[in-house]
């Protein structure tokens, strides 16, 4: 599990930052009995955003309505931090542990 979470972290840090309304994002499916959630890791400008979604949302621009099931989608921002900040090593370690713990 350590290798997997390190691999995810390395892939995230190597994503190119964007300057537009979009973001570079990777989603991980986290399965639980009878249900799953989606852990989305997004790199936008020089920030990393960690979001948990209860439904697959795909990567969509900000403020995009979901008319079919908008009321059912509940995204939660778990954390955000600067990808080049002074605490980046501490934040990366926290995120690796968070990813590992979501697999159980």
Structure description:
The chain has 104 residues and is of the alpha+beta class. The chain has one domain (2-101). 26% of the residues lie in helices and 32% in strands. The protein has two helices and four strands; from the N terminus they run H-E-E-E-E-H. The chain has helices at 2-14, 88-101; strands spanning 24-32, 35-44, 47-53, 76-82. Strands 1-2-3-4 form a four-stranded antiparallel sheet, with helices on one face. Helix 1 packs across helix 2 (88-101). The mean pLDDT is 74.
Topology of this structure?
Layout: H1 2-14, E1 24-32, E2 35-44, E3 47-53, E4 76-82, H2 88-101
Antiparallel strand pairs: 1-2, 2-3, 3-4
Helix pairs in contact: 1-2
How does the overall form come out from the CA principal axes?
globular
How many domain modules?
Answer: 1
Helix/strand/pairing category = alpha+beta
Proportion in helices: 25-40%
Lateral arrangement of strands in the main beta sheet? 1-2-3-4
Low-confidence stretches: none
Span of the ends, CA to CA: 11 Å
Backbone CA Rg: 14 Å
User: What's the total count of β strands?
Assistant: 4
In N-to-C order, the SSE pattern is HEEEEH
SS element count, helices: 2
- What summary fits the major beta sheet? 4 strands, antiparallel
- Estimated share of beta-strand residues: 25-35%
> Average pLDDT, to the nearest integer?
74
